[in-house]
């Protein structure tokens, strides 16, 4: 299966250089077959100097790849400017340049591809029914994760000069992508040593459908993390949220997750970080504004 997937990547995902400047170089792979999933699409950023050296690089996988680099590809004419954030983090001297693998969201299938399958299976009653309505189809995040951690990572490591170990492999996303990043980190601790869960959509469904806080959602995430988190063992996680628009609903759930990290013996500031950005909304400009800080802490050299 891995060989077949890599062959399809080679045949269909012909790389087209979009830029070759001191700010790095973008490659685009427009149709990427992934078993059991909608066709995927990639935008990969190679740091400045990649083509002129034999250096090997750590790798950062990011969800919603269409919203990372170029306005012309974005959903809302707003981007994370992930390449600029990486350059800013590198400029501090505490972060090595990373190859960034941006994985585009599959349109209407985004929710069912990003909702953690193991959390979905643990949900019951009204919460599970709401998830089913939002997904409008089978939840396939387990396949998505298996593809990222397996065929995709194998291809990236074979095609680019990477450092493939756990401590040099990170994953970052926002909203449902934040949940997906936590899912990858918890379910594949041997693959992903660092995760950024930005404005994670802890309600998992429309938060306006519940009165105040949802005890069912709190219990879901508390149990989910308790069963999977384990000891840090050199891993690192960034968690955050704003206080406006959708982010205004996240604090009660984030506090439950934070408590679980503390209870598991993770040391805040060293192993995990949780930040609140007063006034920040649930949108790409807000995430772009803090992404250099996210990278600066999450990807810092040990």
Helix and strand run: HEEEEHEHHHHEHEHEHEH
Could you say what the CATH topology is called?
Answer: Rossmann fold
Q: How much helical structure, as a percent, in the residues?
A: 25-40%
Q: CATH top level?
A: Alpha Beta
Fourth CATH level, the homologous superfamily: Alpha/Beta hydrolase fold, catalytic domain
Strand content: 15-25%
Shape: globular
Which consecutive residue ranges, at least 5 long each, have pLDDT under 50? 1-20
Q: Rounded to an integer, what's the Rg over CA atoms?
A: 18 Å
Which structural category fits the helices and strands?
alpha/beta
Oligomeric status: single chain
For the biggest sheet, the summary is: 9 strands, mixed
Q: Can you count the helices?
A: 10
Strand order of the largest sheet: 1-2-3-5-4-6-7-8-9
**First-to-last CA distance:** 36 Å
What does this structure look like?
This protein has 302 residues and is α/β, with parallel strands linked by helices. It has one domain: 3-Layer(aba) Sandwich (Rossmann fold), CATH 3.40.50. Helix content is 38%, strand content 19%. The protein has 10 helices and 9 strands. It has a 9-stranded mixed sheet, with helices on both faces. Helix 9 (251-263) links the parallel strand 8 (236-242) and strand 9 (272-277). Helix 2 (82-91) packs parallel to helix 10 (284-298).
